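Handout for the seminar on molecular recognition.
Each group receives one record of this type.
Step one: identify the two inputs.
Step two: read the structure output and locate the region that could contact zinc ion.
Step three: write two sentences on what you found, then compare them with the reference statements printed after the record.
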Amino acid sequence: MQPYIELVRRYVYRRILIEFGDDELGKLAVAILNTLLSRGEAMTDDKLTSIVGYNAIDVRRILQALYNMRLASVVEEFNEAAGRIEQSWSIKDEDIRRFLVNLIGGVLDKVSVLMQQLTSASVYICPKCFKRYSEDDALMYDYKCPLDKTPLEYINPADYLTVLGAVESRLKKMLESVSRGSV
Ligand SMILES: [Zn+2]
């Protein structure tokens, strides 16, 4: 899993940063991810809080966010000694694997849609706003973007298909190696 863990770390950091607008929470999320993975055992949020040395409220918010991303799993158990229900959190290799398979699969779907669009029709693109237009549209707009009047550029499908084909095969190899678990 090692070569791909870094990808998951970057993803988690970005998602948390966007969701909470706080760089510290992004770092906290990565610390929680690292801790749960390296310990390889389920942990209560109290234990996690003491390990990562952060406040309990934020640790719980991040755990919930990791759960919503379908990265972290949670089990509820009654703790006799404490006399209350406790939640134990974990992130297993299989959680990382499933997460990566979904992530890569989603991008592969988009790449294949893009490739289909490029093969099925000629495409014009506005170099300013990057909106795409078909041959018919471009003709009617006099080969200028109707939004900003920028002259449209013709995309040579062959150029882009080569690039996208390379991206696609790289992603497929990744998907294969992630699914095999030899990571
Ligand atoms: Zn435009």
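Reference statements: The helical segments are 2-20, 23-39, 45-52, 56-68, 93-120, 135-140, 157-180. The mean pLDDT is 91.
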